Protein: CCHC-type domain-containing protein
Amino acid sequence: MAKTSDSQSRPLETITEHSDESSAAPNAATPQHNNASPQVASPAGFTTDPPSWTTTPDPSFGVKRERNRRSSLYLHPTQGEEAPIQWYCSSYELSSFEKNAVTKEDSHDRLLREVANSNEDLQLSLDAFANQYESSSEPLQGDPMAAAIDHKFELIRYTALKAVEAHDEAVAVLDAEQQHHAKVVADMTNKLEMAEKENATLLNSVKDLLAKVAELRAQTTTMAGSNPFPTVEKRPFTLESPYSSNSPTIVDITVPKAYRTQIQAAPIKYFEGSTDVETVYTFLKALDHHIRLLPNAFMVLNNKLEKMELRGADIARINDTYRATLDLLGVKDLSTIDESHQYFQMYMRKIKDPHILSTLTLSSLSNNGLNLEDLLRYTARLMVIKSTTPSAKNPSSSQTRDVAPSTNRNQSKGGRANTKKPHKASVHNIEEGSEEESEEAVAAVSSKPATTNRAASGSNNYNPRRCFFCDDTGHMQSDCAAKKALLEQLKAGKA
Structure:
C-alpha cells in the first residue's frame, strides 16, 4: 500500500487520543468511526444497551471500556505534517511456498480460513503478519500494516482462483457423469422397448397356435371323444426304419453255474406284469416299504454289511453281496479302499480263522499293503483251499501205547496213554506274481506233524504251544522261517 497527495481523493479523518470523557463523546457520534457491529452508538468508553442478538444480560452494561486497540487503517500524522496522507493498495508477490500450500482439494476451506470468521480475527491475522514483517531482516518498504493488507488480498485472490478451478473441474466431472448416465438410460430404454415388442410378438404367436389347435380339435374330435383315424396294420416284413430294430429276438437268460444254486435257494421276486390283484397289491406294498427306507438307506446297508457272516460254502455269494452293497453305498472301485478304511476293517473282523488272518497279514507286509479287492479275492481262495483239503483222520488203535497200571498212582490217572497228535492244516502266505493271475503260486495249506511227546501228567485241555509269528504248532518263534525271511527283506529294504 502506498500513499499519495492527490487532492481529488478524500483523506481519512484521523482519530486523536482523548483522555477526557467529555471531549471524546462528540467524536464517537460520527458514523464513520463506528465499528461494524449490531450495537447502538453510544458515548465513547461506555455501553448503553446489550447486544440485540442475545437474550442474556450483558455483564459489561454501564461499565467503562478501555480502548486497547485502534484500527490500523487510521494514520497518526506527525506534528510536522499539515495534511493527512492517503493510502492505496499495491501488488504483492507471493512466495512459491505459499502458492504450493494452496491446492485445489482444500482451496475452499483455505479461503474460509483466510477471510476469518470475524473482523477481529482478520485484524489479529494482519497484526501477526505486520509484526513478522517488522522483525524480518529485509529493509522495510512502506508501512508494515499496509504490506500485511496487500499480502492478505493477494493470498485471498490466489486461493479464490484455485477454488474456482476446483469448482470447474467438479462441474465438468458431474456433467460427464450425467451424460454417461443419460446415455445408459437411453440404451436401456431402447432395449426394454425391443423386449416388449418381442414379447408381444411371441404372445400373439402363442395365441394363434392355441387357436389353431382348438380349431383342429374341434374338427377331428368326435362326440365319443376318440380320434377317427383309421388304424393301419402292417406286416412285420413291411416295417421300415425307424419302426424296425436290429436287436436280437432271443435273449440269453441262462444263469451261470456259480450262481445257480444260490438263485434256486432264494429266487428273485420281480413283478412281471401279472393281472392278479393280490400279486399287484403285494408288489406295491413291498415297493412302498422300500421307498420309506430310502432316507435311511445308508444305515440299513451298513447294518447289512455288519450282519454278514463268512462261510466257506457261500464265500462267492457273500463276496458278491458285499460288492453289490458297497456299490449301492457309492463305492465303485474296491481297489481304492486301503487297510485303514472302515469297510476293509469290517470285512477283516468277519474272518475268524487265525491261519487265514496270519496269511493275510504276511501278504500285506510283503506286498506293501492290501486293498479291499485283494482281500476279497485272497479270502475266497484261502477258504476254498481249506474246505477242499481233507481233514486229518483219528488215530488208530495201533498208534496208541497202553501203560500198565503198576502202582496205585498210575491207576488213578485212568490208564492215560501217550497218543500221537494228528496232523493239522495251516495256511501260509500267498505270493502273487507280476504276470497273469493264472501264474500265482499259492502255497496256502501245508500239513505238518504236530509234536508227539506230551507230558504224562497234567490236563489235556490246555492249548499247545504255537509260533507267535505264523501261529504254527510245529515250531517256535525263534525257529520260524517266515520271520527270518521277513527280517532279511526288511534289512535289504525290499519290504
